[in-house]
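G., the chain you wanted modeled:
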Amino acid sequence: MNTNEILNLEIQNYIYEKTGSDSSKLAFQKNPFPEVDFKIILNQIEARTKSKDKLPTWFTTKNIIYPSKISVEQTSSEITAQYKSEIVSGKNLIDLSGGFGIDDFYFSKKVNQVIHCEINEKLSEIVTSNFEQLECNNINCICGDSSEIIEELNQKFDWIYIDPSRRNDVKGKVFLLKDCLPNVPELQDFYFQYTNNILIKTAPILDITAGLSELKNVKTIHIVAVDNEVKELLWEIEKDFQNDVTIKTINFSKDEKQTFQFNINSENYASLGLPKKYLYEPNSAIMKSGGFIEVATQFSLDKLHQNSHLYTSEELIEFPGRVFQIDKIIDYSKKDVHSNLSNQKANVTTRNFPDSVEIIRKKWKIKDGGNVYCFFTTDKNDAKIVLLCTKIKS
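Predicted structure as tokens:
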């Protein structure tokens, strides 16, 4: 891709005009710019369309060049990048896997000097051009292998930031950091020659226990969700740190920012109780954290069952997740379920229950939707029950 060609005023106007259009249909039209590969222009249209909600700053800035639409889909959103920037501080930070540069844009607002390392020459060129358009004057883009760059610079950094990518030759669903590039577990001691603080971003599929077994000196794990979907795990590592690991969960929604945290080795006991007036379902970030006992303890709630991860109380409280009023409790029996739910509309959820939502819907002919929320679960006495609820908070 020739960046100067894409930045041609007429081509940029065409990309702006066609943003949101179906590129598959545009592909059958005549290329209005025969001197430029039409596929490149169509990719710009697709990628810019993808960036509208995820990257509003890029979307509203003129003369932005985009990589592939897949790269835009995989990059950090602005909301998660801004959160990451709140973790770091100091004079300088080096990003060893710079990518499209969303994170570095926000790091540059909190750190005096940011170095963006990117092994892909074309992507490095694109990001350099974009930072100029975004008027980021304290980010230096360097193309090359990150380990070689950090050795050549041979200086101390307040932070090293890494977003490892999974190697293409690794198959199967098991996700380990050693299977990524760069191999952070193998290189951790090397990185500590140049910094005391490392921040690692990983995909939410990474198992927290597996990550802790591979990494040392983990200080805090941040679990970041947007609209109740976990987007990334952030591993905050401090040289020589040996204390208990803190887990911080955050869920960004349109209306609020839900936070919850606990120490991973805290010894708490969750009281179990039968369903009361209100039911609580933790958000996805808390569910990923595994802090199910800590939720009950911190919010003074009863757990329905050791393995159900649903909570209850007589008084309504503020809670980081969905909240329901329990209208009716029925046994999971043919008679009760048939009389209350068969051929009715309801939103079905299962927690610690042998049948899936799909099987339950088919078995009892429950249609999707409506204002009734049904939780098929197990109570503290190991009885299968159904809670018919009204939603109070999403």
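Residues 38-54 form the longest helix (17 residues).

Shout if anything looks off.
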